[in-house]
Amino acid sequence: MKQKIVAIAVILIIIAGITGVAIWQSLPHEPSPPIPFVILLRGNVTTTDYSPEKIVSISPGATEILFALGLGEKVVGVDTYSDYPEETENITKVGSFSNPNIEKIAELNPDLILATGGVQRSFVDKLEELGWGVAARNYEEGVSSILSNIILVGNFTGQEEVAETLVNDMNKRIKEITDKTQNLTIEERPRVYIEYYFSAKGYRSFGSTSLVNELIYMAGGNNVFADSPIQHPTTSDEQVMKADPEVIFISKGAMAESCGLTPDLIRGREGWDGISAVKNNKIFEIEESSLTRPGPRIVDALETLAEYIHPELFS
Amino acid sequence: MKQKSGEKDYFERFTRWKMIIIFLVLALMLTITFAVTIGPKPIPPLDAWRIIVKNIPFIGNLVGDGSSGVEYSINQLIILQIRLPRIIAATIVGAALAVAGVVLQGLLRNPMADPYVIGISAGAALGASIVIGLGIGFSFLGIDAIQLMAFIGGLITVFVVYNIARTGPRVPMLTVLLAGIAITSFLSAIISFIMITLGESLHALLFWLFGSFTLSSWDNMTVTMPVIIIGLIVIIIFARQLNIMLLGEDQAQQLGVDIEKLKKIMLIVASLITAAAVSISGIIGFIGLIIPHIARILVGPDHRILVPSSALAGAIILVLCDTAARTIMEPVELPVGVLTAFFGVPFFLYLLRKKKSLVISG
User: Is B136 domain-assigned?
Assistant: First the structure.
C-alpha cells in the first residue's frame, strides 16, 4: 500500500514537473515557437532561377506581397482571410488561414506555395508529403522579417528587381520616421494603448511579442502593455487607468466591427474620462489589416501611428 | 420470452447476427466507395475507383490505363494521398471510439460513460498542448511529436487514474469514474492556462482539440492502425466475459470469471485504442458515447454482436460525418466533431423515443 502511494506520488510529481516546465517554456519570454515564412516549390527545386506560372498563398501577408510585386495575375488560390487588394475577391479560395483545404490546393497544382509556420506547420508537412518541397524558410521576426520575405518572394518568382525597389522604398519611409524617433527618451515617448477587440472578459491589446509593439516603438511611442509576455493580453479598466495612456488607437476592421468598438464607445466608458488620451481627445482609428498583417502595408500603419503619436514631428 | 429449445434459439440468433454483420460490412464498403468520389475536385467515380484498383498489387494490372498526363496525376494524388488516408483514418477511429465506449459503459455499468471519461482526452490534450506550446517538431516512424505526446499523455493519465482508484487488489469502478472526472478537470485547468499563454499557436491547439482528419496520412497510421486492429480483436475475444460483467461483479465472480483481471485487461485495451484514435484525429466527441447506445438499441446488449456492430456503425457514421465536414461548406472545412453531434443526436433521440428504454444491462 505504501509503495503504491509512493508510486502515485512519483507519477504526479513527474506530471507536475513536465507541465511546469511546459508552462514556463510556453510563456513567450522570447519569441517562441518561431513562426517562419515558408516558400514551397513543386518537386524538389531549390534553385532560385525559377519562374512560377501558378501561385497559391495561404497567408494574407504573403498575398499582399505577391500583389505588391506585380504577381497578382499568377495567383490562382488564396486563403479566405486574404482580402487585400480587392482583386483577391475573384480568386479561388483554398480554405481558411488556420485550416487550409489541402485537396483544393492539390487541385490547383501550383508551382509555388507561400505559407507560414505556426498553425500551418502541419499543413506544410502534408504538402511536403504530396510532392511540394520547402525551398526557403525565413525565421526572422518583426518588421525586418517582412522586408526579407519580400526579397525572398522576389527571388523565387523572377521579380528580384521589383522586390528590391519595393524594399528600398519601404526602408526609406521607415528611416524617415525612425531618424526622428530613435533617440527619444522614455519620457518623450507618449504612452500608447491600442485596443482591437473587447468582450465581457476584458479589452484585448498587444503585448511585447507582437509586431504592433515594435511598430509603436518605431513610431516613437511607448506601448503601455510592452511588458506583457503574452502576445495578445486581455486587460481591464483598472489596468488601462493605471497605465494612463496619452494616445489611444482602436483598430478598424472585422474584429472591431464584431464587437462595436468605436472612439465614442471608448469616450463613454465609465471612469475613462480621467485618462489623459480621453481628456485631450487623442483617440484615433487605424486600419487593422495594415497594422497586424506582415505585408508591405505595414509602413502605412507605421506612418499613421507616427503622425498621430508625434504630430509635432510629422505633419 | 418464449421457451424454445436452446439449440434452435442459438442457431436462430447466430443466423441473425451473421446477417447483421454482413449488412454492416456491406454498408461500410458502400460508404467508403461513395466517400472517395466526393470532394472539392470533381473526379468521376469510375476514375476514382480505377485509380484505387490500379494500386492494389496483382489486381491492378488487370485494369487498363484510364488517362494519363497532369490531370491524371493530380487525381491520383488527391485520391491516394488525400482522400483515401482520411477515409481509412475515419474508419479506424470511428471503430475504436465506438468499441471503447461499449467497453467502458459495460465496465463502469454507466450509460453516461464514454472513452474519454477516465481522463484519456484530457491527458492527450495536455500532451498535445505541451508540444504545441514548446513548438517541438520531430517525427519518429511517421508519428509526429503531437501524436506521440497525445498518445503518451492519454495513457499516463489512465494509469494514474487507475492507481488512484485501486484499493488493494480491487478496483472499484465507481472510484475509477470519479477519479477520472477529477483528473480531467485538473488537467483541463492546466490546458486552459497553457492556451492563454500560447499566442499565435493557439489556433494550432484549437484545431487539434476540435478533432479533424484533414492531415491524415498513411505515415501517421503505420503504428496506430495495428494497435487499434489488435485491440479490437482482443475485445471481441473477451466479449463473452463482458456479458458476464453485466450480471454484476459478485455474480460474475461466482461464475468463475477473474473479474479484476478482466477489468484490468479491458481498461488497458480500451485505453490503448482510444489513445491511438485520439492521436490520429484529435478529440472527436459523441461517437464513443452514442454509437454504443444506438447499436444496443438495434442489435441488443449481447457483447458478442454488440462489439463488432458498434465498430462497424462507428466507422460508417464517422466516415459519413467526415465526408460532410469536408464538403458542405467548401472550401472551408468544418470540425468533424460538430457534425457527429449534429447528425448523430437527432437519430439517437429518434431511436430513444421509439424504443423508450435505454438498455444498458441484461
Answer: yes
